[in-house]
Amino acid sequence: MESDPIRTRRWTRKEYERLGELGILPEDEPVELIAGQLIVAEPKGTPHTTMVRLTARALGTAFGPGWLTPDEAHRMLGRLVSRRRALR
């Protein structure tokens, strides 16, 4: 039995924000918009936080202080993970 491939749709930032406005995604919902996909946010526990800080520190060392904040590093890691999953 052959099944149809799963089709996906990319979300825009405006659509994502509207989901919050309508209460579909409450503010405390751990969901992020990364590369157009709604991704359940990783818990901010020790391994995750450590990886984000180490990434920000390594990039800061390579490109100079203030180049990347931990929040920016978090978003960058999310995009890298999304791309890696897409290549599988």
Overview of the molecule:
The chain is mainly alpha-helical. It has two domains: 8-41, no CATH class; 42-88, no CATH class. Helices cover 51% and strands 9% of the residues. It contains three helices and two strands. It has helices at 13-21, 46-63, 70-87, and strands at residues 31-34, 37-40. The chain has a two-stranded antiparallel ribbon with strand order 1-2. Strand 1 and strand 2 (37-40) form a beta hairpin. Helix 2 packs across helix 3 (70-87). The longest helix has 18 residues, at 46-63. It is extended and about 50 Å long. The protein starts with 12 loop residues before the first helix and ends with a helix.
Structural domains: how many: 2
Read across the widest sheet, the strand sequence of neighbours is: 1-2
Q: What share of residues are in beta strands?
A: 5-15%
Helix and strand pattern: HEEHH
- General form: extended
Number of strands: 2
